[in-house]
Amino acid sequence: MRSVYMAELEELNKKMISMGMLCENSVAKAAQSLVGLDRDLAAEVVAKREEINREEREIENFCIRLLLTQQPVARDLRMISSALKMVTDMERIGDQSTDIADVVRASSLQKIPEGLNFREMAESVIHMVTKSIDAFVNQDAVVADAIISYDDVVDSYFDSIKGKLVGLLKNDKSDTTDMLDLLMIAKYFERTGDHAVNIANWVIFSVTGENRGVQGK
Amino acid sequence: MSTILDVEKLNLWYGDHHALKDINVEIPKNRITALIGPSGCGKSTFLKTLNRMNDLVAGVKIEGDVLYNGQNIYDPSVDVTWIRKQIGMVFQKANPFPMSIYDNIAYGPRTHGIRSRVRLDEIVERTLRDAAIWEEVKDRLKKPALGLSGGQQQRLCIARALAVEPDILLMDESTSALDPISTGKIEELAQQLKEKYTVVMVTHNMQQAARISDECAFFLLGELVEFSATDKMFSTPTDKRTEDYITGRFG
Amino acid sequence: MSVKNPELSAEMPALSDSEKKSAERRKLWNINANFWLCFCAFLTMALLVFLIGYIAYRGVPHLTWQLIRSETSHLKHTIGILPNILNTLYIIVITMAIALPVSVGAAIYLTEYAGRTKLANIIEFATETLSGIPSIIYGLVGMLIFIQMFGLKQGILAGALTLVIMIMPVIIRTTQESLKTVPDAYREGALALGAGKWHMIRTVVLPNAIDGIVTGCILGIGRIVGESAALLFTAGFGLVLNGFVKAMQSSSATLTVALYVYASERGETDVAFAIAVILMILTFLINRLAKLAAKKLKKV
After folding, report:
1. CA distance to partner chain C, nearest, from residue B238 (Å)
2. Which of B207, B236, B250 sits opposite A74 (nearest CB)?
3. Is residue A199 in a domain?
4. Per the domain annotation, does A213 fall within a domain?
5. Nearest Cα residue to B169 out of B11, B29, B46, B25
């Protein structure tokens, strides 16, 4: 039994969970800051960016050192190499949340127009991020598969919001800058969903060895 | 990918101890096949059944067939010295004879009737080149073989085995007693040899198996647990016992 | 500088009175034992020196050229031990010619072919027991079998055959030990190249065991030279000079038997001591030769 090695694999797991939670929180707070137009909350999200980046680098270095010292094979190799790829997506999720918070803070928006289901979209995205990290922790390919399919839901929210924003812009009744801000925020949420799908794909690789390729950045 | 050795229902007993249990495997031609497994699992025993070196052990009983190009090597009518010429072996510890380098290489051919000085010279040079050691020893062929370093002695033994022109080369942990540089040279050598020969090697070093072998067989307690392409075995093994062994969960 | 621990100090601790007394006793005991051991070694050396010295003193003056070159003649009233020297040589040649191939063959069989079987164990036990039997019994048996049963006449042939039985265990043992020192790795290596078993033995094992075999032979010859009891009734007491073939079937005394004859039956103790000197020189030479051969052959 390689007890040092086993302990290190455990630690990798813990680090991944910790970073996962950071990202989940960022997304949740960014969504909340949007819905409540709470600029102070947005500032908190922005402040967290450095911490997320630092954790990404830490986990990367940890994985590379594990590859060097323990020469993992099979299940372990898949787990470590997919962790290496996943932290990139998690860091990007952090970035998207920060971008949303930045827009919220800089925007002059006073109220979210009726009929734009940002709350539902945000909840779906938060659900995807949470579940993808759960799937990694539990090495559960079934949950990962479910997330990949669920992305369609998020995409359809985006299409709906985009369509309504186009309508509002044509009506010329609202501030163009504000509408464009909302479009960008919607896009950021949609990209977050894509990154959650990437994480789910890497989980499937870790569990089954099947490499399905990832969606574009 | 054709098969050169077809092992069917092979069982082996050392006295009462059932050392090999119902082994069925097809060794492919011109490939490197690695045999891995924990100590005492039977991989060296299995290797030695392939050239009937186990016949030398007192109290051994063998059942089953080992078909070499279709012919069972355990058939009583088969000449065992011919089998050992066709299926050569390199041992864990280099064992050059206490003779000159030239005589070591020439021993095999002379045993099989080649006396002509010209032919022997040619064989000695060719096999020493094949074993990537010609440049190092060409000026001291008449010097004792025991004066060479460990890594050189082992390459000499490989050349000696090649001198009788076998089809298959069996390597029984041939690099485990060597330093990393010598090991590296022999690993490269094995990869070149597979163009003309078939290599079956027992190894304790899993990185070595992953590095150079094409096919891999995992033995445990006398059974052949899994046999698959090396890439597959080391990334997505089928049997949990295989995975547990190669990831170090036991053994 | 840190404070040093008094218990771990490097100085010698002060001794109490009783401790000093036992230290003294131990010293005396050591000196005592040393002395007595040296004395024993000295005694052994002294015995050897005395033995050699006395024999040389008694024998060398009578060691004449004429003694060695001629035959005892009643007519001329001279004594010559040439026949005995020749008889010794004849018997060495015949004995070794028969014993060597048979013993080496047996040793090869036991070591290489028979392995750990019951038969091999019995044969090994037999050879070990044979080497412990007193040589006079060999003489008796030799006489009964070769002379009475086979009908041979008392002579070098009967004597040689008796000696063959006697030194076979010696040569078998030393050959076996020598064969066992050849590493199995060589045997495996040769067999793995497709060599047959006998070919492997002939080309790889024997050349490497040759030093031990030669040593065994030389020591066997030493035993032959020194043997007397076994030859008394088988080779006989004859002091006549014979050719090789005639000696086979005529009573012929070797040097050792001649020593006995001259000393006890003829009362020529001077001659006996002279023969003793020759035998001692021969023994010494044979032992040196054995050591030299082992060293020389080992280098190959």
Report:
1. 35
2. B236
3. yes
4. no
5. B29
Domain extent, residue C165, equals 82-299
CA distances from A67 to A46, A71, A201, B122, C155 (A): 33, 5, 21, 47, 87
Which residues does B contribute to its contact with C (CB < 8 Å)?
51, 53, 56, 58, 81-85, 88-89, 91, 93, 95-98, 107-108, 111-112, 157, 160-161, 164
> What pTM did the predictor assign?
0.79
CB atoms within 10 A of CB B49: 23
Encoded tokens for C247:
């000696």
C-beta atoms of C185 and B93 within 8 A: yes
In a domain, A214, yes or no: no
What ipTM goes with this model?
Answer: 0.92
CATH code of A44's domain = 1.20.58.220
Structural domain harbouring A15: 2-208
8 Å CB contact between C226 and C291: no
Sign, Cα dihedral of C114, C117, C122, C125: positive
Looking at chain B, which residue has its C-alpha nearest residue A77? B235
Classify residue C61: in a domain, yes or no: no
Residue A112 included in any domain: yes
Interchain contact, A1 vs B234, CB within 8 Å: no
Nearest to C192 among B82, B89, B93 (CB): B89
C119 touches chain B (CB under 8 A): no
CATH code for position C259: 1.10.3720.10
Residues of chain C positioned with their CB less than 8 A from the CB of B103: none
Evaluate whether residue C136 is within a structural domain. Answer: yes
The verdict on C267 touching B (C-beta cutoff 8 Å) is no
Chain C CB contacts of B83 under 8 Å are 194
* Number of domain units in chain A: 1
* Cβ-nearest to A75 among B207, B210, B247: B247
Asked if the structure places residue C122 within a domain, the reply is: yes
Q: C16 in a domain, yes or no?
A: no
Q: A144 is written with which tokens?
A: 């990962």
Q: How many domains does chain C have?
A: 1
| 3-class secondary-structure state, position B13 | strand
**Tens-binned pLDDT, residue by residue, of chain B (251 aa):** 799 999 999 999 999 999 999 999 999 999 999 999 998 899 999 999 999 999 988 889 999 999 998 899 999 999 999 999 999 999 999 999 999 999 999 999 999 999 999 999 999 999 999 888 999 999 999 999 999 999 999 999 999 999 999 999 999 999 998 999 889 999 999 999 999 999 999 999 989 999 999 999 999 999 999 999 999 999 999 999 999 999 988 85
Rounded distance, CA A101 to CA A93, Å? 12
